[in-house]
Amino acid sequence: MKNENNEALALLFGALLVVGAALWSAAAIIAPAAIIKLCWLFLMG
Q1: I need a surface site. Which of 30, 36, 38, 45 has the fewest CB within 10 A?
Q2: What whole-number distance in Å separates Cα of residue 32 and Cα of residue 40?
Q3: What does R_g of the chain's alpha carbons equal in angstroms?
């Protein structure tokens, strides 16, 4: 029983790690693009 719990926790932790990494990657891609777009609009406006 204890072994199964450890495996479940490991899977949960792994899933959270993957989701966190995906969100971090998305933020790293989206944030600079949004900043560039805002600067572009500011300069053009």
Answers
A1: 45
A2: 12
A3: 19
The secondary structure of residue 1, as a DSSP letter, is: -
Number of domains in the chain: 1
Q: Write the single-letter amino acid at 11.
A: L
Phi/psi-derived region of residue 5, left when phi > 0, alpha when psi is between -120 and 50, beta in every other case: alpha
Cα 41 from Cα 30, distance rounded (Å): 16
Q: Walk along the chain (45 residues) and give the pLDDT tens digit of each residue.
A: 577 889 999 999 999 999 999 999 999 999 999 999 999 999 998
d(CA 27, CA 43): 24
